[in-house]
Amino acid sequence: MPEAVLRWVDVNLLGWLKARERKILKITVAAQLVILVGMIGLRAAPLVTGQTVLVRVEPVDPRDLFRGDYVILSYPFSRMPEGRLEGMTEAEQSRGTYNKKLQGRTIYLTLVPDSNGVHHRAEKFTLVKPEDGLFLKGQMERYGRVKFGIESYYVQEGTGLKYEQAIRSRNLTAELAVASNGQAVLKRLHID
Questions:
Q1: 104 and 183 in one domain?
Q2: pLDDT tens figures, 10-49
Q3: Segment 71-122, tens digit of pLDDT
């Protein structure tokens, strides 16, 4: 009896699948496209909905500055100063604690307009997501470094040296699109 039931299930299930083969294929392809477009849309959302701000770029070790067709960028707020993380005790804020307890954790950085009225600068680092205002969402790395996902920028082939020189002379500004959740996307670089 069980063999007969299994044959009946096999025949009916295979028949059902065969009859709906095209429909199942279309649904599978559509699902893959929706997932792909969703992934792209989530990454591009700050470009459409985010607030545009300008931040200053700092020079990085020249040996790592230009690799192939992209420029490595650093910002005045790429390294969190000791004692500047809101919500931690003094003992927890030692450099060794940054490495052990905070590595991989989400860090928020509030931005305020600079005195020149054009650029934005760091106001405070916090472990708690700010309720309002402009802020960046980053991830704590080793030695007090915070990564925001805006540390590299692809440039047209042969133009890297121009950006490298602008960074060294501190004449480079990054234009960011910052979404309301703190996600930032690097829109373009400006040579002052």
A1: yes
A2: 667 777 778 888 898 999 999 999 999 999 888 888 888 8
A3: 888 898 888 876 667 767 666 655 555 556 778 889 999 999 988 888 999 8
Q: pTM here?
A: 0.68
Residues 84, 89, 95, 100: is their CA dihedral positive or negative? Answer: negative
Q: Which residue from 191, 150, 159 is spatially nearest to 46, judged by alpha carbons?
A: 150
Q: What residue numbers bound the domain in which 30 lies?
A: 2-47
Give 11-58 as a DSSP string: HHHHHHHHHTHHHHHHHHHHHHHHHHHHHHHHHHHHHHHSEEEEEE-B
**Statement to judge: residues 62 and 37 lie in one domain:** no
Give the 3-state secondary structure of 81-149. Answer: CCCCEECCCCHHHCHHHHHHHHCCCEEEEEEEECCCCCEEEEEEEECCCCCCCCEEEEEECHHHEEECC
Q: Are 125 and 146 a contacting pair, CB within 8 Å? A: yes
Residues 90 and 182 in one domain: yes
Whether the Cβ atoms of residue 62 and residue 111 lie closer than 8 Å to each other: no
